[in-house]
């Protein structure tokens, strides 16, 4: 999910202080509307449906999208090929991800805006991957395409070809794979946060994965709690307070064990 800012007085969708033309967490629909056609912006449609993964995004994009947007598919563009043992959406190599970003027209000069249906679940994947490879000028459209439509913003149906660019990774951040997580379990030295709905965490319901439940020791904090009633992200102050409480809880549990 997009990282919360420390500035409680500012909207979470406002540019960072001192960087009036850069959005690195969220961007509001009104701000994005002012940059339609801006050659320094790359707008990426990441709409997806886990129940209809093959064609949902492409069909939604063909029906209507933010003008000038290019399409990125969660499975084909933002994930590595699956092998049956590496999960549903394995992380691609930095080299493969950089090649995709270049095809989308992203380079170091571009402000990227990612959007999905509304809750940011899929758009945040692209946001996180860009940050992973050192590109901080990336934001999620607050409220997604749903809010864009509700506000009567312009839409398009024609596709535009991306202007291919050269994306250069820098400061690639470390990640941990399943083997690393498994090895850490006896030591209790990782905080595992399960962002799925509570019923999936508990194992009451599982319609996607072959095994119900959660990784031993993981805490549950559903991603839906990041959002306000209108589908936009809650304030940075609220989110920071909740995540700091989780960190304190985790430290208490670790101390007891």
Give me the CATH fold name of the largest domain. Answer: Oxidized Rhodanese, domain 1
Helix tally equals 8
Count of distinct strands: 7
Q: Round the mean pLDDT to the nearest integer and report it.
A: 90
CATH class annotation of the largest domain: Alpha Beta
Radius of gyration: 19 Å
Helix content: 25-40%
- Total discrete domains: 2
Distance between the ends: 29 Å
pLDDT < 50 runs, ≥5 residues: 1-11
Any idea what the CATH superfamily of the largest domain is called?
Answer: Rhodanese-like domain
> Could you give a short account of the major beta sheet?
5 strands, parallel
What spatial form do the alpha-carbon principal axes imply?
Answer: globular
> How much beta, percentage-wise?
5-15%
Class by alpha and beta content: alpha/beta
Neighbour order of strands in the largest sheet? 1-5-4-2-3
CATH architecture of the largest domain: 3-Layer(aba) Sandwich
Which H/E pattern describes the elements? EHEHEHEHEHHEHEH
């Amino acid at each position: 999910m997009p990282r919360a800012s420390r500035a409680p007085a500012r909207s979470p969708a406002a540019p960072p202080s001192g960087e009036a033309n850069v959005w690195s967490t969220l961007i509001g629909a009104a701000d994005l509307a002012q940059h339609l056609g801006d050659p320094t912006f790359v707008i990426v449609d990441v709409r997806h449906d886990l129940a209809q993964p093959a064609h949902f995004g492409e069909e939604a994009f063909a029906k209507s999208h933010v003008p000038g947007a290019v399409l990125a598919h969660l499975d084909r563009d933002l994930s590595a090929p699956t092998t049956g043992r590496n999960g549903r959406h394995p992380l691609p190599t930095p080299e493969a991800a950089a090649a995709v970003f270049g095809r989308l027209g992203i380079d170091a000069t571009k402000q990227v805006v990612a959007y999905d249906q509304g809750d940011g679940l899929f758009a945040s994947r692209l946001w996180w991957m860009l940050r992973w490879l050192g590109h901080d000028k990336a934001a999620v459209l607050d409220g997604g395409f749903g809010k864009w439509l509700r506000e009567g913003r312009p839409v398009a149906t024609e596709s535009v070809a991306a202007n291919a660019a050269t994306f250069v990774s820098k400061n690639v951040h470390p990640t941990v794979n399943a083997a690393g997580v498994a090895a850490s379990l006896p030591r209790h030295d990782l905080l595992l946060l399960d962002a799925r709905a509570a019923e999936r965490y508990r194992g009451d319901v599982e319609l996607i994965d072959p095994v119900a439940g959660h990784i031993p020791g993981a805490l549950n904090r559903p991603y839906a709690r990041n959002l306000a009633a209108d589908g936009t992200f809650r304030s940075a102050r609220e989110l920071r307070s909740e995540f700091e409480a989780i960190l304190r809880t985790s430290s208490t549990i670790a101390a007891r064990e």
